[in-house]
Amino acid sequence: MGIIQTVLAFLGALLAGRAALATENLALRHQVAVLQRSVKRPKLRRRCQGAGKTGQGGAGENRPL
Q1: Angle at Cα 64 formed by Cα 42 and Cα 62, nearest 5°?
Q2: What is the C-alpha separation between 47 and 57, in angstroms, rounded?
Q3: In sequence order, which residues have a C-beta less than 8 Å from that of residue 61 and are 6 or more positions away?
Q4: 3-class secondary structure for 15-54?
Q5: How many other C-beta atoms can be found within 10 angstroms of the C-beta atom of residue 28?
Q6: 16-65 pLDDT, tens per residue?
Q7: SS3 65
């Protein structure tokens, strides 16, 4: 029984390692895609930047459903 548990533990670790590697690979590919964008995101205007800090004027605040 000990050998079977050892083999199953090894296979579980191997598969978990591959899943973690695939997740990391996906995150890195996304970072590269963001850095290689040809169209840059527009900079926020001063009134837009302040809206998030003060909690006033944000999109969707106090809006009835």
Answers
A1: 60
A2: 9
A3: 55
A4: HHHHHHHHHHHHHHHHHHHHHCCCCCCCCCCHHHHHHHHH
A5: 10
A6: 888 888 899 999 999 998 888 887 777 877 776 655 555 555 555 555 55
A7: coil
Distance CA 45, CA 27 (A): 30
* The residue to which tokens 């670790």 are assigned: 13
What is residue 25's predicted lDDT score, i.e. its pLDDT? 92
Q: What is the C-alpha to C-alpha distance for residues 50 and 52, in angstroms, rounded to an integer?
A: 6
Give the pLDDT score at 57.
Answer: 52
pTM (two decimals): 0.43
Q: Looking at the chain, how many residues does it have?
A: 65
- pLDDT of 12 higher than 80: yes
